[in-house]
Amino acid sequence: MRDLFFYELRKCVADIRAIEDALIPSEIDRERQIIFDAYDMVCKLSDITRREGLLTLEEYACSIPKKGSVFTKVVRTACMCICDGMEPSYVEEIALNRYMAGVVDGHEGLAILILVRGLLLMQEHESEGVIKEIVQSMIPFELVEE
């Protein structure tokens, strides 16, 4: 599964670079905000789960509409699997299967991968600092250097 994750990460970054060449600046900002929102959500959830435990993800998952984008479906599923006490390898497999079953790429794809990776790190009880650094390392340099 790890190879698939990294393959999809590289594909999303390549898609972002190609997509942004065709967008006007305001559209680029809107698309990039999807990624930054995912990063912010990982940081917020990391803080909450550190203080209150992983079961708080259930409250977050229940606030996500059942019907919606691939993004909402993947994140909701991953949160519920974690709350159900599923092994991290199974959570990763299910989340990546849902991701692959939906047709996503570029900014939305990267946002999903960021949230899934962050949730898996929370499940493994990594520190907030480690979670932030790993998730931030997934964002292409040109998006954060500006």
Describe the overall structure.
This protein has 146 residues and is mostly helical. It is built from 8 helices and no strands. The model has no long low-confidence stretch (mean pLDDT 89).
Q: How many strand elements?
A: 0
Q: pLDDT average, as an integer?
A: 89
* Continuous helix count: 8
- Helix-strand sequence: HHHHHHHH
SS content category = mainly alpha
Name the helicity range: over 70%
Strand content: under 5%
Form type: globular
Task: Report the uncertain regions.
Answer: none
Oligomer: single chain
Radius of gyration: 15 Å
Distance between the termini: 32 Å
Features:
globular; 146 residues; 8 helices; mainly alpha
Give a short synopsis of this structure.
This protein has 146 residues and is an all-alpha fold. The chain has helices at residues 2-21, 25-52, 56-62, 70-83, 88-101, 106-123, 128-136, 141-144.
Topology overview:
Layout: H1 2-21, H2 25-52, H3 56-62, H4 70-83, H5 88-101, H6 106-123, H7 128-136, H8 141-144
Helix pairs in contact: 1-6, 2-6, 2-7, 3-4, 4-5, 4-6, 5-6, 6-7
